[in-house]
Amino acid sequence: AKHRGRNKYVIFNTDVKEKISKEYTIKTMLQKAIENEEFELFYQPKLDRNKRVVGCEALIRWIKDGKVVPPGEFIPVAEKSGLIYEIGKWVIEESAKRVQEWESDEILKEISLAFNVSVVQMRREGFLNDVRNIISKIKPNVSNLEIEITESVFIENKQRALHLLELLKRMGFKINLDDFGTGYSSISVLKEFKIDILKIDKSFVDEVLSKEGRVYVKTIIDMSKNLNLLTVAEGVEYQEQFEVLKELGVDYFQGYLFAKPLKKEEFEEFVKKLNTS
Ligand code: C2E
Ligand code: CA
Ligand code: CA
Ligand code: CA
């Protein structure tokens, strides 16, 4: 078995023989996790060129026996088993609550919150209705909420995806296209789907200090500007990357250079520190 060295992988190793029963085990544990409310949202700051916090990305964590399990270890199983639907609904509700809560604070009310939505989740018939119900129950300022989708939503049923995004936009959500450059998106897709914000994938940020990598990012940014899209660079880890990305015209920045995903209270403190000085 691989990765036996590190504790967390003992439960989640990927040997083919054990895969099915393993998935079954995780699925059962996830089901319990939903009931016991073991999920938590962490918030990673999104900064502008002047290092003011303009928003955050909500990232889910599973707190299992006091240990933090990252989403890469359970979201795929949740997607396969359909449990992503319940988990995803919780994410939307929690995100809406946060934005609603922040409205009564002079500084935090300016902060937007982007949450991730899985294709599997959007595929469900009742998705839009659930979003509507959550919004009408919690009544957040929807213009401070952003939905992060990946290019894969366009592959399955384009007409339906188009319709869905149109309705979400009408409700006030902004649409982020996540992991841009790793899939198959074409310029026509960006226009047709009325994307607001394009997230440049970390793999491009990783290469931006090389001559070739710089050309790629420049191309993406020039295209975004022509289409009136805002850009976010994700996975910014070094000051040099930040400098070059700024020079190339990126609007917003997210990455360990500024902060890791933070607990709610830590995030709120972080915002107050950076946005009041
Ligand atoms: P993503 O949407 O591309 O999220 C960005 C990931 O990059 C996050 O990992 C974040 O912690 C990490 N990251 C941010 N800055 C840096 C950096 O400077 N360096 C490095 N090495 N990594 C950085 P995380 O939180 O483990 O999430 C992984 C993926 O799990 C996400 O990728 C997203 O696809 C999925 N995910 C997370 N939360 C949710 C959720 O609530 N619902 C759904 N459906 N998927 C989620
Ligand atoms: Ca994301
Ligand atoms: Ca991303
Ligand atoms: Ca990514």
TrEMBL record:
Coiled coil: none annotated. Residues 23-275 form the EAL domain. This is EAL domain-containing protein.
